[in-house]
Write a structure and sequence with these properties.
The structure is a homodimer of 451-residue chains. With 451 residues, chain A is mainly alpha-helical. Chain A is 69% helix and 6% strand. Chain A is built from 22 helices and 6 strands. Chain A starts with 6 loop residues before the first helix and ends with a helix. Chains A, B: Keywords: CBS domain, Cell membrane, Magnesium, Membrane, Metal-binding, Transmembrane, Transmembrane helix, Transport.
């Protein structure tokens, strides 16, 4: 019945069902929808209908719904439910999602909510929150089924049927021995294809690739991407403690890329379309004020060369071009290094090769652009010496700019600092200063010929 | 036996087995490894051993191996195999991987290779290559099993056993009716949990979310990310023609983010650590040369104000600061818009809200930075008028810079042009020009007071 409906028709349909109190019809509609869509409708209906919305669906559905809501609606919904029911819902939520919801709450509020949960579930969530941010421990879930290596296929299927609700999204079964050590993996497909009496240890794949709870999330993403896995097991001293699933990894990849872009463009942390103006301004200001002072440094450099500049005012015409191009060439190199480091580890040899490559790139673009601008300057201002000064300055600044954009992030990487922190604007500004020095230095050297 | 080996030990072990011709031992070793690791070892051993390597493994393993190799090694391996065996291998490869391998070949070479394949497989690959780049059609594979809606669970399991090799990585089974229309989906887990005699149509989930072959890959990624799917079906007029799997989507997300960064930083298309220096230089030059000419435009503007500048040389001191900050504030806004558009569609209302928000941000940062620089200029140069000129120029340029960085990508988005094309440097340079106009315009206005 709801097949052909557009999103707004569906929303109206649901509001109508809520108003008329048709619980059965309402549940039938909800059954046909994905959690993301249910959450979207829940968020868009008038607030007064939301309580009945929650009353009309079961705890599993509430758990799925809450996982897809925005932070403030999550709290609102949990509060509406009351401590007992919210505990039941939280028991059913993915613990990684629950952990990232709880960590934004005050300690009191968090403990209140945790108190409604089953003891063991509450402990698992609290354990997850103890792992450092951006590690496998924070992403992992315990919603998976483990099996023992001596099980037969028949026993395995029995266990699967018992734990059906726990194995919802996972497509591998991890195999443990009597010490709970991870010893193998089988897929659902293997189970379907195998004979009922075969033993798991005979059909399992035993060279399992796993991570530890403190493995960085970028490394986890790299492994899942490399091996095309749907999930990867997390072990602690050989003992299986959880799994990280591919859907979390997609979110990691997106947020890591966004972070890189934020840093490269110094656009401020976590600003999206919904961020309030004063918050966005507050997050961007630190960088802009730093930039302002660095700009004053540039100004001081120029003021040192005031005499040169007032003697040959035409020098000012080429200032933005030289500073702009040097800054840009640095950002170009920086972007190549930062993105390259995502998919690849860099040793001393690779770093040396890269620096040498960028040196050559700098020389090539330096000479081409330098000669071009020298000719333009000669034609425009009719001075060969000015052409020489501008052209040779540009060659030098482009080579230095390229190298700075390559070497600085590599040094940061070696020091285990995120190379993207050497954001585009920082490199740009550094290169600005260097280029002004070189340009006015050259000009002062040739001042007699320029006059 | 190979459990505890490091990568280089493993490589030596494999070379030894190849030299000694121990085919059985060699196969046992390979069986324990992931395709990615096998490919890494294959690539790192001396070229003379590679032929025997290929002889020692079966066609399925060769297919898996080739999918993980670099382009040049892929061709080398296919050539080594000879036309008949390479046809068998290509029949087994994922058609999307095969298509992206073939499209880099000359037409003759491609037809030669295709001629060794089974007719229907060869046709499927050629069909894929006919879809526009970066669409679902290019990413989809036909390595999946469909089932009919009237099948029982028992019949389904029978079919699965027959088509075992085709269903390797997929965890959903797509259900079609007698017209081959996609009507539902079930997971392997559903099959395991269901009773043998139940019918697929009774347990299947029928509100299937699907894409068409010409859906943009970013849209496909958005759906898979949103719904946490492991695969999404591709239909053509309702008929199921293939599926896109989550592992391809991770690659899409990474490459789209890299593209955004490349464009935002104008770092040149597809430059990685292995790109040759002259190629990298060639790819970066167009932008730099464009930037050079835009720089000349800036220069021309300054030259228009030569008289103002030579009267008050101190104006030059604040030039880099004003241009730099205006450029940067534009890039900040741009980055927020470009990343925001990835996870969200923007309608007229959202766009208006965003522009209004950024206007407020521009005003806040403009007034704070403007007043700050006015005070600095007053103290440093001892001129209240200079402070006023610099400060009020900065307020104006920061507001305009912020708006330009917001509105330009939104217009491009509306025109269906990739907003990231309004790369950071372009916005920066545009803002440079505008800021110079405003700054020198203001200065000329107050020239009598400045003298």
């Amino acid at each position: 019945m709801i097949e052909g409906m557009t999103e707004s028709q569906l929303t109206l349909h649901i509001i109508k069902q809520l108003k008329e109190g048709k619980k059965n019809h309402f549940q039938k509609t909800i059954d046909e929808l994905q959690p993301y869509d249910i959450a979207k409708i829940y968020s868009s209906i008038p607030a007064k209908h939301r309580t009945r919305f929650l009353l009309f669906i079961n705890v599993e559905q509430i758990a799925d719904l809450i996982q897809e809501l925005e932070k403030d609606l999550q709290f609102e919904a949990l509060t509406k439910l009351g401590i007992e029911k919210s505990g039941q819902v939280m028991d059913l939520m993915d613990n990684d999602d629950l952990a990232s919801l709880l960590e934004h709450l005050s300690k009191d509020k968090m403990e209140e909510l945790l108190s409604g949960m089953k003891k063991e579930e509450s402990k698992i969530v609290q354990d997850i929150m103890n792992y450092p941010p951006e590690t496998a421990g924070r992403l992992m879930t315990n919603r998976f089924v483990w099996i023992k290596d001596h099980y037969t296929i028949r026993e395995t299927v029995e266990k699967l049927k018992t734990f059906a609700e726990y194995s919802e999204t996972i497509n591998y079964l991890y195999v443990i021995d009597q010490n709970k050590h991870l010893v193998g993996v089988v897929s659902y497909r293997d189970i379907i294809l195998a004979n009922e009496n075969e033993k798991i240890q005979d059909i399992m794949y035993s060279r399992v690739i796993s991570v530890t709870a403190d493995t960085d999330q970028e490394e986890v993403a790299r492994l899942i991407e490399r091996y095309d896995f749907l999930a990867i097991p997390v072990v602690d001293n050989g003992v299986l403690v959880g799994i990280v699933t591919v859907d979390d990894i997609i979110d990691v990849v997106i947020s890591e890329a966004t972070e890189d872009i934020e840093k490269l463009s110094a656009s401020g942390k976590a600003i999206d379309f919904d961020t309030k103006a004063y918050v966005a301004a507050y997050r961007r200001l630190p960088w802009l004020i730093l930039l302002l002072f660095i700009g004053i440094v540039s100004g001081t450099i120029i003021s040192q060369f005031e005499e040169t500049l007032s003697t040959v005012v035409a020098l000012a015409f080429f200032m933005p071009m030289i500073a702009g191009m040097t800054g840009n060439t640095g950002t170009q190199s920086l972007a190549v290094v930062v993105r390259g480091l995502i998919t690849r580890e860099v040793d001393r040899k690779t770093a040396a090769q890269l620096i040498f490559r960028e040196l050559k790139v700098g020389l090539i673009i330096g000479f081409i652009c330098g000669i071009l601008i020298a000719l333009i300057a000669l034609v425009w201002q009719g001075s060969a010496v000015l052409g020489l000064v501008v052209g040779s300055s540009l060659i030098m600044t482009l080579v230095i700019g390229t190298l700075a954009g390559t070497i600085i992030p590599l040094i940061l990487y070696r020091l285990n600092v995120d190379p993207a922190i050497a954001s585009g604007p920082l490199i740009t500004t550094l290169n600005d200063i260097v280029s002004l020095f070189i340009y006015f230095g050259m000009a002062t050297l040739f001042i007699n010929q320029l006059m």
